[in-house]
Design brief:
743 residues; alpha+beta; Beta-galactosidase, Chain A, domain 5; TIM Barrel; Immunoglobulin-like; 3 domains; 14 helices; 20% helix; binds alpha-D-galactopyranose
């Protein structure tokens, strides 16, 4: 790892593992993107900016400056002065003029990596000298009095490059930011593919690959959260790139609100990647002396396809983003009562579940929605965070103490950012809801969003949660957020500042979770938003795990978890075994398969255990044992995708390999049975080719019992290049997990 300035060449070279990121200063003032890829180590690479080709640089050919601006590969493009592609920055002056031109002024190379105030940010290992380095480039628009600082960080143990930017108004008049995106990267690419993640409620983060085409292709959100629908991620890939081969360039946004991720193919066969806060509905007033800090973008290059890209993201997030003390700890196996009871529960019912759960080895009871106010359906009481003593006679402490006495920990659900029209809070403070005066706000799940741009609302929300947490020994919180924003107006922000509400709201969420982690450092926090609508790197900074999706069907989960694991370590994916027929899709899958699929995440149960058959309860006992055995490997290991049901429509397979390659775990799901076939040959990945591995069958379909593979020993090379012959399985939705142990 290192950052160097090559003065003669006017180049900054950031090295991270086998990757380098090179920035050039063209014509003494324009900050250009030179290269992001495999390490070259050639000081003459600045020619890639093409500043010696027609139409030359402005100092030599001022009359064609516009052509220069429109083809120059910018590191941070600005609007209105010759670059007609979409840009990062658009600023309106007090007089109403738009246009901005940034000139390079100087640089700093810093040890480590500074935090971003008020925002989640990637960090260096605490106190580890040499763990990371940061380059800051100062640029200025003299006319506006605007300073722009571009920041790039690299780490000793990662090939990722983390970027952000901050704006400082050094003039004496306010500036109006109409676009303030975090990063831009211009690359030569005549043809390639664009990869994004798309979905919907109960169908989050499905991978979507399409050819890059002339013009703009983008995913975005202006829902007030990152959303189920689009994900703040994009990657461009070589046409032939796949799981293990080909070049991939990816960007992922460390932010939880409105975003845009765009690929724009230009007239000159280059592609511009842009990422940042969505300019739609955004305007920020930057008064003299004020600073605006943009969220970070994680940039990853892989020369070995998507698999390596995933592993770079996973290691960066585990090593440099998730702060929770639970990161490397075993998470408790929990049972959540949502799908078991919905709103229809009381202390006795919860204790009944807890007693049976304890018998089978489950470690925590989580009480979901419906314990407060007068909430018996999803139509009221949000905002009134007082325990409903009709359901919980004797109060919360009484319940928690009894659960603890059984030997289980206790967790609780909140949806603190919301208010129901039918609530005491709304009746007393309607102005605390986000709304446009004179317009009846749009309801969604019969609720409104609280105005977190307002400090007193943030304090109220914080105290509502903290007061409950102080009242009983609660180990876990599920922090939910069940609607997207509309009627984006604030009774608190003045006329000029309404365009700031979306972003100020997100800053409010971050402040709340920061305060929570400070006062309750041992709390296990799981974020959630109608399932996985706020599964993003921003939230991971506060919680080590996020509920992946309300869809707990084992088959639906295959695509959801594949798309999620494309970027996120398995230790972050909230996954539970639920009852069948599944409540979302009505599908019936074997209990074992549900367990195997949930084992690729944080693992837990979401069902009424008291209603299960004895056989199913015995399976829970088995799964609990498996979880204890495999949890460290799943949490800490390297993830490999072997096959995708999304692509082949028949089966899914993934693998986790210990960092020292001493152990691996493969999960195979036969989604649909086929006629006329024998065994299936699966080629493993990531093993030590020279080592010998013993197969331990850990979860077998009954039909396969006679064909047990346990005890076989094979060389890693055989398993990876030759392959494992997996016996035929009868029926749909069957699964097997196999553990490989180095002998
Ligand atoms: C959201 C969550 C669910 C559950 C309900 C409760 O939909 O994703 O898991 O907590 O809210 O209302």
């Amino acid at each position: 790892m290192g950052i160097e300035y090559l003065e003669r060449e006017g180049l900054f070279r950031l090295a991270a593992g086998n990757v380098e990121y090179v920035i050039g200063i063209a014509d003494g003032k324009y900050v250009g993107h030179v290269y992001f890829g495999k390490r070259m180590g050639d000081n003459r690479c600045g020619c890639l900016m093409r500043t010696e080709e027609a139409p030359f640089v402005p100092s030599k050919n001022l009359r064609e400056k516009c052509s220069f601006a429109d083809m120059f590969p910018a590191e941070y493009s600005s609007w209105g002065v010759g670059d007609y592609r979409d840009s990062c920055l658009n600023v309106r002056s007090e007089e109403g003029f738009r246009g901005c031109e940034l000139h390079y002024e100087g640089y700093r190379i810093l040890e480590g990596k500074p935090k971003l105030p008020g925002l989640p940010s990637v960090f260096c290992g605490e106190g580890e000298a040499g763990a990371g380095m940061t380059l800051e480039l100062d640029c200025r628009d003299k006319v506006l009095g605007l300073k722009v600082v571009l920041r790039y960080s690299v780490f000793a143990d990662s090939e990722a490059v983390v970027r952000s930017a901050r704006l400082v108004n050094e003039g004496d008049k306010p500036l109006y930011l109409e676009r303030a995106l975090s990063a831009c990267m211009d690359m030569d690419m005549e043809e390639g593919d664009l990869l994004t993640l798309a979905g919907s409620w109960a169908r989050e983060r499905h991978m979507v690959r399409r050819p890059l085409a002339f013009g703009k292709q983008m995913v975005s959100s202006f829902r007030g959260e990152s959303g189920h629908q689009d994900h703040p991620f994009l990657a461009v890939m070589e046409r032939g790139a796949g799981q293990d081969q080909g070049e991939v360039w990816a960007m992922h946004f460390v932010y939880s609100g409105n975003f845009v991720a765009e690929a724009q193919v230009s007239q000159f066969g280059s592609v511009r990647l842009l990422m940042g806060i969505n300019p739609e509905g955004f305007e920020w007033v930057l008064k003299p002396g004020e600073v605006f800090v943009m969220p970070e973008v994680v940039c990853v290059y892989s020369d070995e396809g998507l698999g390596k890209m995933s592993r770079i993201f996973h290691d960066l997030y585990r090593g440099h983003l998730i702060r929770s003390p639970y990161l490397h700890r075993k998470r408790p196996i929990l049972i959540n009562n949502w799908e078991a009871t919905y709103f229809d529960f009381d202390t006795e019912k919860l204790l009944e579940i807890a007693r049976e759960a304890k018998k089978r080895g489950i470690e925590m009871l989580v009480m979901d929605d419906g314990w407060f106010g007068d909430r018996n359906i999803d139509e009221g009481s949000l905002g009134d965070w007082e325990v409903n003593e009709k359901k919980l006679p004797g109060g919360l402490l009484h319940l928690v103490e009894q659960v603890k006495a059984l030997g289980l920990d206790f967790g609780i659900w909140f949806e603190p950012e919301m208010v129901s029209p039918d609530s005491k809070l709304y009746r007393t403070r309607p102005d605390w809801a986000i709304h446009i005066p004179g317009r009846e706000p749009v309801q969604s799940r019969a609720q409104y969003v609280l105005d977190l741009s307002r400090p007193e609302v943030v304090d109220y929300v914080y105290e509502s949660v903290a007061r409950i947490l102080r009242s009983a020994p609660i180990s876990y919180v599920k922090w939910d957020m069940n609607r997207q924003m509309t009627d984006v107006g604030s009774a608190f922000l003045g006329r000029e500042h309404q365009g700031e509400l979306f972003h100020r709201y997100v800053l409010g969420v971050y402040e709340l979770q920061e305060r929570l982690m400070k006062e309750f450092p041992e709390l296990l926090l799981e974020n959630c938003a109608s399932g996985g609508a706020r599964f993003d790197p921003g939230m991971l900074y506060y919680s080590p795990q996020i509920w992946c999706s309300d869809d707990t069907d084992a088959v639906e989960r295959l695509a959801i978890q594949e798309g999620t694991a494309l970027l996120y370590p398995l230790s972050t994916m909230g996954a539970h075994v639920s009852a069948c027929p599944n409540h979302i899709v009505g599908r019936v899958t074997p209990f074992q398969t549900r367990g195997h699929v949930a084992m690729a995440g944080t693992f837990g149960y979401e069902l009424d255990i008291t209603k299960l058959s004895e056989e199913e309860k015995l399976q829970i006992e088995e799964q609990v044992k498996m979880y204890h055995r495999f949890q460290p490997l799943v949490r800490e290991g390297d993830y490999y995708r072997i096959a995708s049901w999304r692509e082949n429509h028949r089966y899914d397979c993934w693998q986790v390999v210990a960092k020292d390659k001493g152990e691996a775990l493969m999960t195979y799901v036969q989604v649909l049975a086929e006629p006329n076939w024998h065994s299936r040959r699966l080629r493993l990945k990531g093993l030590d080719p020279e080592a010998e591995y013993r197969l331990e069958e850990v979860g077998t379909c009954q039909e396969m019992a006679g064909k047990a593979m346990a005890g076989q020993v094979h060389k890693g090379a055989f398993l990876m290049y030759g392959g494992l012959l997996l016996p035929r399985m009868e029926g749909d939705f069957r699964s097997i997990m196999i553990r490989f142990v180095r002998v």
